Amino acid sequence: HFRNVRGKVPRYQEVFVDEGDLDMLGAIQALRDVGYEGMIIPDHTPEMTCDAPWHAGMAYALGYMKAALQMVERGARV
Questions:
Q1: What torsion do the CA atoms of 20, 24, 26, 33 make, to the nearest 10 degrees?
Q2: pLDDT at res. 75
Q3: What ranges do the domains of the chain cover?
């Protein structure tokens, strides 16, 4: 599951993948560096204020993940 948070257990907040305490681009780079060939899927995503709040949050996470994977595949070091 691919998600980002702010804070630590037991007081943390789930945030968009590019807004938390973790280096998500670095995490994807690390997975590639060790030869990981499995899948990654978005976990809980914040909802947006719109007609489809869950879908919009999930689309944001998927777009971020796809862009990050493309950067890593093209050899960009993060």
A1: 150
A2: 85
A3: 4-73
Distance CA 47, CA 29 (A): 27
Cross-strand bridge partners of residue 7: 12
H-helix or E-strand spanning residue 10: none
For 43-68, write each residue's pLDDT tens digit. 989 999 999 999 999 999 999 999 99
pLDDT at position 7: 97
Q: Which two tokens stand for residue 67?
A: 């862009």
- H runs (alpha helix) in 14-52: 24-33
- Cis ω for the linkage preceding 53 (within 30 of 0): no
